[in-house]
Amino acid sequence: MNHLEKHKRKIHPIESTNVFSKYLFLYTLKFFRKNLREEDLYEVPINYESKIIDEHLEKKWKPPQIREKKVSVVRLLLNCYGLNFFLLGLMKMITSAIMLIVQPYTTGKLISYFAIQTTLSQRDAYFYAALLIVLKLLNCIFLHNYYLLLAGLGIKVRTALCTLIYKKILKVDQLHFKNIGKVLTLITKDVNAFKIFIDYGNDVWIGMFQTKNRTGCIGWNGFLVDPNPFSNIHFCKNLDE
């Protein structure tokens, strides 16, 4: 239980700003106009509070027929955050595919204007230059929002795992509890490994499809022998125990 005095802080501006300001990060402009102090820290957004995350886990684990069984941590996390994680990766794959097709074509057209040719006018060159700038700008905005949402998802997963560990400790008989070092390892190392997987997990399966497109089935052999995607299974086993 937390016995520390809780300081009242200002509500995070992301909860009250409009969509345009939110996705363009306009609410952060005032941070660069002055030196940041302790009173400039905001309250944690509601969606990232441990209480809200714990209630969300309870809803996914609420059916009695599920509670009577030994629930897998991976399955529970997939039910809570798997769809959001996959949709973010799908959006990145589509955006990357569009950029890989349109950007080289636009750049090639712009460069060809300066070669000896008669098909492209100066107006066409301005058009392709403007299109290239817009593509770069849109891609920049998307990537910043993508990594922000991905970081937020990682925070939720990390908070959820720490909540499960904390509630598990409260139910363990203290007289027979001797694995303090194991708990510290779970919280400080293994939970952070899940956070790292959230950051780079989408790049793994997106890279598999891109490799397949470039090299064929032989390019998948490296992914089949790579043990890194399965390194977190040991953590889930420890948490289940």
TrEMBL record:
<dbReference type="GO" id="GO:0140359">
    <property type="term" value="F:ABC-type transporter activity"/>
</dbReference>
<keyword id="KW-0067">ATP-binding</keyword>
<feature type="transmembrane region" description="Helical">
    <location>
        <begin position="76"/>
        <end position="105"/>
    </location>
</feature>
<keyword id="KW-0813">Transport</keyword>
<keyword id="KW-0812">Transmembrane</keyword>
<keyword id="KW-0547">Nucleotide-binding</keyword>
<keyword id="KW-0472">Membrane</keyword>
<protein>
    <submittedName>
        <fullName>ABC membrane domain containing protein</fullName>
    </submittedName>
</protein>
<dbReference type="InterPro" id="IPR036640">
    <property type="entry name" value="ABC1_TM_sf"/>
</dbReference>
<dbReference type="GO" id="GO:0016020">
    <property type="term" value="C:membrane"/>
</dbReference>
<feature type="domain" description="ABC transmembrane type-1">
    <location>
        <begin position="93"/>
        <end position="210"/>
    </location>
</feature>
<dbReference type="InterPro" id="IPR050173">
    <property type="entry name" value="ABC_transporter_C-like"/>
</dbReference>
<dbReference type="GO" id="GO:0005524">
    <property type="term" value="F:ATP binding"/>
</dbReference>
<keyword id="KW-1133">Transmembrane helix</keyword>
<dbReference type="InterPro" id="IPR011527">
    <property type="entry name" value="ABC1_TM_dom"/>
</dbReference>
<feature type="transmembrane region" description="Helical">
    <location>
        <begin position="125"/>
        <end position="148"/>
    </location>
</feature>
